[in-house]
Amino acid sequence: MRTGNGDGFKAGLIAAGSMLILLLVGGLYANIDTPMERFTDWLIPRIPMSWFETGIATLGGYAKPLLSIAVMAAMLLLGGTIGLVYGRVRARRANLTAVALLLAPGVLLLLSGALSGGISDSGALRTAVFYTLAYLLFAVVLMLVRYLQEPASFDDVTDRSRRRLLRRTLYGGGALLTVAGIGSVLVRLLDRVSLTNVRANVAGIPRPFTPADEFYVVSKNFVNPSVDRDSWRLSVRGLVDEPYELTLEQLRALPPVTQDQTLECISNEVGGNLISNAHWKGVPLRDLLNRAGVRAGTVDIALRCADGYTESIPLHKAMEPDVVLAYEMNGELLTDEHGAPARLLVPNIFGMKNAKWIERIEAANFDWKGFWQKQGWSDVATVQTMSQIRVPPQNLELTTGKTVDVGGIAFAGSRGIQKVDWSADGGRSWQEARLLPEIAPLSWRFWEASWTPDRPGDMTLSVRATDGDGNVQTESRTDTLPDGATGYHKIDVRVRPASA
Ligand SMILES: Nc1nc2c(c(=O)[nH]1)N[C@H]1C(S)=C(S)[C@@H](COP(=O)(O)O)O[C@H]1N2
Ligand SMILES: [Mo]
């Protein structure tokens, strides 16, 4: 007896849904790459850079989650379609289709192995195993639901009660698993989904040191890794005399250094808040490299991270004393979102080189292209001289004759800030602002001024910094891609007459 196409589609949908839940749980608890991440990582380097930029610009932090939701929807649809086709074919050749359905994971395993560039490392193997299990779950659930959908013959009482029992077990168990799965996914997602920061320093001049939970967060991941501190090993290898591994405890036993340093994301817009400052503690990268003995011929030091992220810095940069493998931030162990157990600090270079969740440091004899470089971002990535007005906020209404505070931040990496000028007439005339005392050589600098508007109207405030080398920040506006945004930050205010 046959049931309709709708039933087949529904069965496929249920099966694909259970598969998806298993994969999400795997992504959250076993650090496997979910299909969503696989697809995004695969897609991003292949789409034109301008689309990518537009996507990020219009959707902001929602671009990644939306893409992931689209992938999930596509998987459900595909599952439904498979269910529909299976339903039709099964009516004729039941055993054959069942065998084909169950054999497919083998093909899938090979495919996903090929996609991940070989299943040599344990993360990829774990992912492949999870995918196979997830697919098997899909196949089994699909077959079961289809079986249950078939009407039992009316007079066969045992058949009917057997089906009823099975159906109850299946639906009950399924409902339980779904609730548990979705619940745990939601709980974990709430603190692990990495929307490009939306919560950092709001209005006003920020605190000199940004608390970890207010520090901006950027990562390529839909779900960030949560690395187990006890089983974590840092491996130093590649073109070295003596490769070695360290536990976190061993790393923390090495002579530490502390460093106050500001991080800024290369995709920080003019006036954006993807910039924060912290007090860090760790071990100079060069100490770690010297211990292994980097061989002649090394060009780049490559970093591999638990989320599959890769970065590289030239050897000469890696040997600078202030390039630090940090394990503490503001006096506490690194939090998951900022790269626990250890992340790199590379002064004077945009955030992307400050790799988080580092597992492997590798000396290479070639110019290693990192995750973002493959996507067109600068490989040098020196921070641009920047400045921002944080007070007054945009569109504030002011009154003639009343004095207000004007102030904000300025940053130029290790070049430091020499001077900040501000303008109340959109840049026709400039006045020097007061610089607050330096927080640290690698940290942002705060500036302030007082302004008493003397005539009513719409006004534009702007700011420009001069770095420690005497170079005035460039006025010409460029996009964040590929070298980081440039141009002056401007704020519009409306000044009303005093006695109106
Ligand atoms: N492993 C890994 N490290 C990473 C990233 C990532 O996606 N994965 N993102 C980089 C980018 S683009 C930035 S701006 C900084 C942000 O660091 P934060 O989130 O601690 O502020 O981390 C960098 N390190
Ligand atoms: Mo970044």
- Beta strand %: 15-25%
Global Rg: 28 Å
| Dominant shape | globular
Major beta sheet, strand line-up: 2-1-10-5-6
Quaternary structure type: single chain
> In terms of structural class, how would the helical and strand content be classed?
alpha+beta
Order of helices and strands: HHHHHHHEEHEEHEEHEEEEEEEEEEEEE
Distance between the termini: 85 Å
What secondary-structure arrangement, pairings included, does this model have?
Blueprint: H1 5-29, H2 35-43, H3 49-59, H4 63-90, H5 94-115, H6 122-149, H7 157-192, E1 234-238, E2 244-246, H8 248-253, E3 257-264, E4 275-284, H9 285-292, E5 300-305, E6 310-314, H10 315-318, E7 324-329, E8 332-333, E9 343-345, E10 358-364, E11 386-391, E12 397-399, E13 404-411, E14 417-423, E15 431-432, E16 434-435, E17 445-451, E18 457-467, E19 489-496
Parallel strand pairs: 1-10, 12-19
Antiparallel strand pairs: 1-2, 3-4, 4-7, 5-6, 5-10, 7-8, 7-9, 11-13, 13-17, 14-15, 14-18, 16-17, 18-19
Helix pairs in contact: 1-4, 1-6, 1-7, 2-4, 5-6
List the main descriptive attributes of the protein structure presented here:
500 residues; alpha+beta; 5-stranded mixed sheet; 5-stranded antiparallel sheet; 10 helices; 19 strands; 35% helix; binds ligand MTE; binds molybdenum atom
Protein described:
By secondary structure, this protein is of the alpha+beta class. Helix content is 35%, strand content 22%. The strands form 4 sheets. Strands 2-1-10-5-6 form a 5-stranded mixed beta sheet. Strands 3, 4, 7, 8 and 9 form a 5-stranded antiparallel beta sheet that branches. The chain has a 5-stranded mixed beta sheet with strand order 12-19-18-14-15, with no helix packed on it. Helix 5 packs antiparallel against helix 6. It is globular. The termini are far apart. The site of the ligand Nc1nc2c(c(=O)[nH]1)N[C@H]1C(S)=C(S)[C@@H](COP(=O)(O)O)O[C@H]1N2 has 20 residues, from loops.
